[in-house]
Amino acid sequence: MIRIQVPATSANLGSGFDSLGIALSMYNQVWMEEADGIFINSRDGMEVPADENNLIYWSAKLLYQECGKKLPGLRIEQQSDIPMARGLGSSSACIVAGLTGANRFLGNPLTMQDLVNLACRIEGHPDNTTPALTGGLVASAMEAGRVHSVTVPVSDLIQFAVLIPPFELKTEFARGVLPDSYSREDAVYNLSRSALMTAALFSGSLSNLRVAVQDRLHQPYRQEFIPGIETVFRLSYELGSFGAYISGAGPSIISIVDDAGAANFQRYALSHLEEKNISGWKLELLHTDSAGAAVYID
Ligand code: HSE
Fold it and tell me: What is the pTM of this model?
């Protein structure tokens, strides 16, 4: 069997709706081999579809079709630390695992650019799938079905304090609550902050992050579905966050921190939330993953 390791991802980074994304040091591990039927198993007890509808299987099958091959069947075993429907790219990790494994079985006929395009076609937007494939911080734009993207490394000094609530927020629903159009003022508000975010993370100019995470395209419409969000944001800045934002479509909240901020989060975040009757949240302190999807022979 081969093992494919795919990182979690945080899309949008606040202002870069459907454009910016970053790979994080939390992983889905998928073991795969060709088989005569479909055998899907979860090593960690997570409930996953065990038939053709499994996203890993479905993505692998699509890649075979794209290459003019028929997939006989697959044995898949998954062990994932990425919680589902929490804004951390769990579905993108499955798509990327299926594509990466299938590409390997066929002798890597698809290039990284092909994989980026195909993964985006399945997911519908590139901001989780591209960093899951490449690692790092990625800025992407779609043009005629092709993803144009640049991947840049992020300073090791930056960490991500990820506060994960005990409830899910489905991406489909969280996209459905967004307006169909925006004013020019709102468009400029986000354009300027998204450009600032990319430059600030790349250069390490952390003092700009608090402005760069603000947006008017999605967070104002999604926050009512994340009970406790105002308290979480307020606490994040008290603990030393440089910028706090809803990760992807939510509901997890990410704070960009340095070592001192990370230590504060570790020590105080969950107990202070409990004091405010916000319970059941989890904290993960993560770094940027710079490798992206990787295949290993165990
Ligand atoms: N950019 C996407 C969104 C990420 O905010 O809806 C979630 O898949």
Answer: 0.96
| Cα(208) to centroid(ligand 1), Å | 23
The residue length of the chain stands at: 298
SS3 at position 120: helix
Instruction: Tell me how far the alpha carbon of residue 37 lies from the centroid of ligand 1, in angstroms.
Output: 33
140's tokens: 């992407």
Specify the residue with its C-alpha closest to ligand 1, atom 5.
Answer: 249
Compute the distance from residue 11 Cα to the ligand 1 centre, in Å. Answer: 6
Cα separation, 264 vs 275, in Å, equals 16
CA of 201 to the centre of ligand 1 (A): 20
Ligand 1 contacts (CB < 6 A) are 11-12, 17-18, 125, 127-128, 171, 174-175, 218, 248-249
Atom number in ligand 1 closest to CA 249: 5
CA distance 256 to 241: 6
For residue 207 the two structure tokens come to 């003092």
Pocket probe for ligand 1: among 17, 22, 94, the residue whose CB has the most ligand atoms within 8 Å is: 17
Please name every residue paired with 10 in a beta bridge, in sequence order, or none if there are none: 22
Per-residue pLDDT of the chain (298 residues; tens, 9 = 90+): 999 999 999 999 999 999 999 999 999 999 999 999 999 999 998 889 999 999 999 999 999 999 999 999 999 999 999 999 999 999 999 999 999 999 999 999 999 999 999 999 999 999 999 999 999 999 999 999 899 999 988 888 899 999 999 999 999 999 999 999 999 999 999 999 999 999 898 888 899 999 999 999 999 999 999 999 999 999 999 999 999 999 999 999 999 999 999 999 999 999 999 999 999 999 999 999 999 999 999 8
Helices 112-123, 90-105: axis angle to 10 degrees equals 140
